[in-house]
Task: inverse folding
DNA sequence: TAGATTGTTAATCGATTAACAATC
DNA sequence: TAGATTGTTAATCGATTAACAATC
């Protein structure tokens, strides 16, 4: 049943499944099962079958799933059968790290421009990029059809940057700034907040441990 | 009721509440309400009250919450009333970025050593650190009582690094490698996987958008 | 006091799991 | 065929929300 609305939490697990299938393809595996995937990912086999069932029937009873086929189907479902252009806002330490990150391109995500509002940074080289001023943002988004934006500015500026990106038509934001953004419902946001994750884990550590 | 087990999903929201309360303290606010917090965070006020109720009673009927007091209570609950030492494994691009990240110290998280198994990297300066070999890992963890580890090695090495850290007594792992780790139940893991988040969002973008 | 907001209960909603017929 | 595994249904489990008495 491909037409019902799929719970967001299910969509969020698909990239994990895809990652594992990519790995199995690398290993030369032909066939897998919901049981094996679940064991390797720490998820129940029932959940994997149920998640996949939102999108169609990909397996064979008694046999399991063809690894490459299921991988290809998940890539299609996640719109990984095309390239995605992104703009990166913020050329500080964090922006540098993101601009240098090698892991995006292999998955079809491409940073097509790095922007900062600091005149001291504009024009400077940043890896294979040259930092551009915010006045060039709209032009690049439109020319390169960038549908995604990466926010790597201080929290105090993130709200404003997000509004700008949304105004220019960007519909997905990966936000590294430690601040909750509220956006129109057609704009998706995901957060990367290492400090919040560390705090989450610290809760479970016995007090007195650590330094 | 401070003694029942608190759902993990609730614990995961506390850092977000804490972040907002820190912000309100900065702004000089004295009092807030579940309504205001919810509006600002895109969460229902009922959820905020219910979440907090797992840990005690922090507000006053008719008035709301004292911002600084609630902030301090959340810091205590999350064990942020102490310092936490961490080791960083991996001195590649990603390790460099993490080692340079300024945001940890202000929250009481400290990287006390950077490690890599590549002899070409060992001994090299990395910001304020000097990259150490894996043979020094145990000594540093024990000497500095590091309870947390940050994994910034390639996926192929992450499993082995995690086992090593766990063997040396580390009980919380922040994993930047794109691989699911299975750990003993007393060891917590959190994941940072930008590609997975981008794929999650790409699902919602109309096909044909992007590059 | 009157108005506001908490903490909590009960109802609702949604996600996960167990179980199994279908079938490869 | 016998064994294995899917896709799906129903049951269970857990999380969120609505509502309100308590009370500041």
Result:
């Amino acid at each position: 049943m491909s037409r019902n609305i799929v719970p967001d939490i299910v969509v969020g697990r698909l990239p994990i499944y895809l990652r594992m299938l990519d790995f199995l393809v690398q290993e030369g595996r032909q066939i897998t099962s919901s049981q094996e995937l679940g064991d390797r990912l720490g998820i129940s086999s029932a959940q994997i079958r149920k998640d996949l069932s939102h999108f169609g029937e990909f397996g064979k009873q008694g046999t399991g799933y063809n690894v490459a086929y299921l991988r290809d189907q998940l890539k299609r479902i996640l719109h990984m059968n095309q390239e995605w252009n992104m703009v990166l806002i913020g050329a500080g330490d964090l922006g540098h790290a993101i601009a240098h990150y090698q892991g995006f391109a292999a998955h079809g995500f491409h940073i097509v421009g790095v922007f900062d509002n600091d005149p001291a940074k504009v024009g400077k080289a940043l890896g294979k990029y040259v930092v551009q001023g915010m006045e060039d943002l709209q032009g690049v988004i439109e020319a390169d059809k960038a549908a995604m934006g990466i926010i790597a500015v201080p929290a105090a500026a993130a709200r404003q940057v997000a509004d700008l990106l949304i105004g220019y038509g960007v519909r997905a934001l990966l936000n590294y700034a430690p601040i909750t953004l509220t956006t129109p419902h057609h704009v998706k946001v995901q957060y990367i907040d290492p400090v919040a994750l560390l705090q989450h884990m610290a809760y479970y550590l016995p007090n007195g441990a650590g330094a």
Summary: The first helix of chain A runs from residue 8 to 26. Chain A is about 40% helix and 15% strand.
